[in-house]
């Protein structure tokens, strides 16, 4: 027989069927009901799962006093496996949450240990007698009454002390390295400063050298102008001319930028130029006075201007260019000029060089025999 609930359900369905004759509408209402019910079931399942997880975590919290880093999951299962909160989750979730709890406990223990070790090292740091070479056996008696000493396990005290000594040594090395780095940096700075000074000195020296070169050039030009203005005689001597040059109102002869011995050197070059100019003028005089026509004319004594120096100098003596050349140079210049003139006048184009040389030697002997001996 049907129960009253089933009867009521069938009655409700019958009435719904009568109230909603459309099949599609009834199907849509049914699908909506199914989806809504599925969502509710999922929410209920998640809520139940969450409640089971929270209950299991509560179990882990209650059992935490008996859990440490050495506790295994099997040990925990043997002790708490009968608890309903343990069985409410599957094994994979239980084991994952257990390991998470163990890690949290380990971190808590490690944090507490670190705090204790930090206090222990602070205690050591307060003792100024501890240096990087100190030994634990020598200093531990000084701390036995300190609570921070007692808070550390016996087997960990020396390790913590050694860690502190290592920190001291590391700090000492850092100080030494910093000091060395500072010394090195100062040395590099001094080296850079030295290089900068040297470069500046070189630049200043180069600038001074350029300035000196310019001053010397100006001093040389000024002194050469003074020589042109003052020294006209190619036979002038340095000893006699120096006092005269030093009286220059502009001080061009005593300019310190000329350099030692430079004034005399320039003087001698100037005099040399003057004399060379006189020699050129004398050669020009020879060309003018002893032209080819005049060279071939003979005097009453049967001599020519290219054979007899005495005849030639009588002709040239009246010209100012004659006296500006020394007597020794006059005759030697005349000799060379006469030889060239005779060669041009008498040497045929086909004459051999050795024949010409013999004739030139004969002419020189003839000149020497025709001229009176020169007085010394």
Number of β-strand runs: 0
Helix content: over 70%
Strand and helix order: HHHHHHHHHHHHHHH
- Mean pLDDT across all amino acids: 77
Cα radius of gyration in angstroms: 65 Å
Contiguous low-pLDDT stretches (5 residues minimum) are: 349-356, 372-376
- The total number of structural domains is 4
Beta-strand proportion? under 5%
- DSSP helix count? 15
Overall shape: it is elongated
- Largest sheet, described in full? none
Report on the architecture of this protein.
The structure is a single chain. 75% of the residues lie in helices and 0% in strands. The protein has 376 residues and is mostly helical. It is elongated, with a radius of gyration of 65 Å. The model is unreliable at 349-356 and 372-376 (pLDDT under 50). InterPro entries: FF_domain (IPR002713), FF_domain_sf (IPR036517), TCRG1-like (IPR045148). Pfam families: FF. Keywords: Repeat. Residues 49-104, 113-167, 216-273 form the FF domain.
Summarize this entry quickly.
Keywords: Repeat. This protein has 376 residues and is mainly α.
Essential attributes:
Arc Repressor Mutant, subunit A, about 75% helix, mainly alpha, 15 helices, 4 domains, disordered C terminus
Which helices and strands, and how do they pair?
Elements: H1 4-19, H2 23-62, H3 73-80, H4 84-87, H5 91-126, H6 136-139, H7 147-150, H8 154-230, H9 238-246, H10 262-289, H11 292-296, H12 309-316, H13 320-323, H14 327-346, H15 353-370
Keywords: Repeat
Biased composition (Basic and acidic residues): 237-250, 344-355
Domain FF: 49-104, 113-167, 216-273
């Amino acid at each position: 027989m049907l129960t009253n609930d089933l009867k009521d359900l069938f009655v409700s369905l019958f009435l719904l069927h009568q109230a909603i004759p459309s099949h599609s509408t009834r199907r849509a209402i049914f699908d909506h009901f199914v989806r809504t019910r599925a969502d509710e079931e999922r929410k209920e399942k998640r809520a139940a799962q969450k409640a089971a997880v929270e209950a299991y975590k509560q179990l882990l919290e209650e059992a935490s006093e008996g859990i440490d880093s050495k506790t295994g999951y099997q040990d925990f299962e043997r002790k708490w496996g009968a608890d309903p909160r343990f069985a409410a989750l599957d094994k994979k979730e239980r084991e994952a949450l257990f390991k998470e709890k163990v890690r949290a406990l380990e971190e808590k223990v490690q944090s507490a240990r670190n705090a204790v070790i930090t206090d222990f090292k602070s205690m050591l740091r307060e003792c100024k007698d501890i240096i990087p070479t100190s030994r634990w056996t020598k200093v531990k008696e000084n701390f036995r009454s300190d609570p921070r000493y007692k808070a550390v396990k016996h087997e960990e005290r020396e390790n913590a002390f050694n860690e502190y000594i290592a920190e001291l040594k590391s700090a000492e090395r850092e100080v030494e390295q910093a000091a060395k780095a500072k010394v090195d940096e100062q040395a590099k700075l001094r080296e850079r400063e030295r290089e900068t000074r040297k470069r500046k000195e070189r630049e200043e020296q180069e600038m001074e050298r350029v300035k000196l070169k310019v001053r010397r050039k100006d001093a040389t030009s000024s002194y050469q102008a003074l020589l042109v203005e003052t020294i006209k005689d190619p036979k002038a001597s340095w000893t006699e001319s120096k006092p005269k040059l030093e009286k220059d109102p502009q001080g061009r002869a005593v300019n310190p930028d000329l350099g030692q011995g430079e004034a005399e050197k320039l003087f001698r070059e100037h005099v040399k130029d003057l004399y060379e100019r006189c020699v050129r003028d004398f050669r020009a005089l020879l060309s003018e006075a002893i032209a080819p026509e005049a060279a071939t004319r003979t005097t009453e004594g049967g001599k020519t201007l290219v054979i007899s120096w005495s005849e030639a100098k009588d002709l040239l003596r009246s010209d100012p260019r004659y006296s500006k050349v020394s007597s020794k140079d006059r005759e030697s210049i005349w000799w060379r000029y006469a030889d060239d003139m005779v060669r041009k006048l008498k040497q045929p184009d086909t004459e051999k060089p050795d024949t010409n040389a013999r004739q030139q030697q004969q002419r020189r002997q003839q000149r020497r025999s025709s001229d009176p001996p020169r007085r010394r």
